[in-house]
Q: What sequence folds into this?
């Protein structure tokens, strides 16, 4: 569906994307994970054929965006980072006119709008203006709108940023259904749980580069341990702890507010820590996540 | 999976495509690269019609404006200035002299308003165009669609203006019917130029600059008096103003005094419209398709 080779995006002197290779296959959910400014959105916009590439090669749906932009966009759905709903129109009109931009007939867009409002659970707000909707509803409408042309490939740029947990889960549910229906998804996020939940495969981006690639479980297996022991200390008492507990795990990371011990067995490590008479304020044993992978690869957390 | 019927006209090689299937591509599609134009500007008109279907009352102002103007000049001004010399040297009432010029000026004002205020907010704040550019539509579709709407609206206003003029007994020649297409041309030229300007505006406060350009144009473009009142060097300057050409056309047509120079006036406005539309598309592409 998407094939990028040595893809580069420059804005003046600033290089946002610095030569990445990506391949997205039909029917999969593919993720771009990385902190703000990693180059995710620039990459997405190039794939969406709304931003010309600066260098490298890019094929979307087998076509070159520089030449066939309109033809590619006709088969894409795009959920931008910020809602771009038409605030001068109602919910229903937003869906209808968007279908018209794709050249669909009036009868088609009427039918499709009704169907999509059902899908996004917005039927009751059909004839209300968009401004009156809650954040979650607007996001759902944006996703519904991106589906008006029955896209083969759906691009979601941080689809759940700024939403409450309930709204996020509802959106995830909709995305699962789309995937089950055969739509290829490309998702960017700086929430590791989102990518872990939704994506079959992902790349981790940092500073315009791809730093790792694989399925969530592969990445965790490759770059982290099965479990993590988190130790929190009272302010000012964390100094020197990392060295003391280093031998209880394969690896130790020190963050400003806690020490992470990477180990196959977190409970055992915790016992050993207590045995050494180290007394954290609180401790937590959890499974490794993509956040740990990211931390390992870049030395930073995802959401600062 | 069903795909939206995309135009089969956006082929990779425009030249090759037009050679094999010339009938399926309009002249614009053949001239312009596919990424700029999908040939679907009409969808933008439809959007505007949707927006205004809830605000149709604004069209009432289209009748009120000429009514107030003409009343003021008939009842008020007409008392002071009884007769002036018309385009063909014939005497005419002041209100008959000024009415066609006001029609052109009102077409200008409507077009400038539509293409600056309305476009600015869609462009900067509502991100309407970003959303549209994610569809097959290109910047030229947007430019033509938005300018087209300003022209349509200008046409409706001009029709109302003409009706009010007729009501005042100011339409004396059948040529006056041509005031309508002239008003469309004036709207086209000013909305195209206005839209280019709108892409340069950074904040609503800068609309004062637009007023700064439109107001003198309205007052100085021989709207209220003939060109001959200016000293000669100033006459050339006034003749550069686009509204002057609109006024020349409407004033002559209203009384049926035709002149070959009218073709020149029309060509000036047409050229302005084409240049404006082209640069609008360029600017939108530059700012939105980064």
A:
């Amino acid at each position: 569906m998407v094939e990028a080779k040595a893809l580069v995006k420059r804005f003046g002197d600033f290089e946002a994307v610095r030569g990445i290779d990506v391949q997205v296959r039909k029917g999969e959910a593919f993720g771009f994970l990385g902190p703000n400014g990693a180059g995710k959105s620039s990459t997405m916009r190039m794939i969406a054929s709304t931003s010309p590439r600066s260098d490298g090669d890019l094929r979307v749906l087998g076509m070159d965006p520089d030449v066939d932009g309109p033809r590619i966009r006709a088969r894409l759905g795009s959920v931008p980072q910020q809602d771009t709903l038409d605030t001068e129109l109602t919910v229903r009109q937003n869906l209808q006119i968007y279908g018209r931009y794709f050249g669909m007939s009036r009868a088609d867009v009427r039918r499709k709008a009704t169907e999509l409002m059902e899908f996004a659970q917005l039927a009751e707000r059909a004839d209300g203006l968009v401004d009156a909707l809650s954040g979650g509803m607007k996001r759902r409408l944006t996703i519904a709108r991106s589906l008006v042309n029955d896209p083969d490939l759906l691009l979601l740029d941080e689809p759940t940023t700024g939403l409450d947990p309930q709204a996020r889960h509802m959106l995830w549910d909709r995305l699962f259904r789309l995937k089950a229906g055969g739509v290829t998804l490309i998702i960017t996020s700086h929430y590791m749980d989102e990518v872990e939940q939704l994506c079959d495969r992902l790349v981790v981006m940092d500073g315009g580069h791809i730093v790792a690639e694989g399925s969530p479980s592969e990445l965790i297996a490759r770059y982290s341990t099965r479990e993590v022991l988190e130790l929190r200390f009272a302010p000012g008492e964390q100094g020197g702890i990392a060295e003391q507990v280093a031998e209880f795990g394969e690896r130790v990371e020190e963050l400003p507010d806690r020490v992470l011990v990477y180990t196959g067995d977190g409970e055992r490590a915790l016992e050993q820590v207590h045995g050494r008479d180290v007394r954290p304020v609180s401790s937590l044993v959890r499974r490794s996540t993509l956040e740990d992978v990211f931390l390992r690869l870049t030395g930073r957390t995802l959401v600062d | 999976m069903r795909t939206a019927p995309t135009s089969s006209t956006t082929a990779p090689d425009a030249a090759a495509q037009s050679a094999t299937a010339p009938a399926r591509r309009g002249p614009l599609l053949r001239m312009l690269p596919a990424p700029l134009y999908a040939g679907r500007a009409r969808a933008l008109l439809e959007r505007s019609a949707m927006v205004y279907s809830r605000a149709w009352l604004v069209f009432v102002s289209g009748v009120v404006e000429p009514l107030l103007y003409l009343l003021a000049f008939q009842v008020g001004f007409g008392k002071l200035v009884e007769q002036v010399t018309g385009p063909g040297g014939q005497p005419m009432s002041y209100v008959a002299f000024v009415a066609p010029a006001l029609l052109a000026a009102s077409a200008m004002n409507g077009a400038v308003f539509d293409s600056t205020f309305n476009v600015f907010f869609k462009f900067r704040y509502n991100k309407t165009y970003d959303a549209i550019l994610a569809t097959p539509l290109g910047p030229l579709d947007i430019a033509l669609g938005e300018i087209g709407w300003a022209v349509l609206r200008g046409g409706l206003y001009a029709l109302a203006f003409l009706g009010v003029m007729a009501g005042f007994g100011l339409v004396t020649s059948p040529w006056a019917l041509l005031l309508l297409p002239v008003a469309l041309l004036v709207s086209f030229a000013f909305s195209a130029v206005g839209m280019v300007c709108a892409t340069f505006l950074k904040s609503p406060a800068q609309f004062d600059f637009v007023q700064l350009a439109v107001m003198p144009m309205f007052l100085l473009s021989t709207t209220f008096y003939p060109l001959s009142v200016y000293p000669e060097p100033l006459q050339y300057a006034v003749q550069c103003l686009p509204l002057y050409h609109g006024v020349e056309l409407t004033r002559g047509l209203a009384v049926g005094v035709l002149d070959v120079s009218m073709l020149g006036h029309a060509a000036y406005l047409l050229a302005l419209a084409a240049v404006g539309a082209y640069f609008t598309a360029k600017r939108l592409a530059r700012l939105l398709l980064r």
Notes: The beta strands of chain B are 83-85, 91-93. Residues 148 and 176 of chain B are 23 Å apart (CA to CA). Residues 1-25 of chain B have pLDDT under 50 and may be disordered.
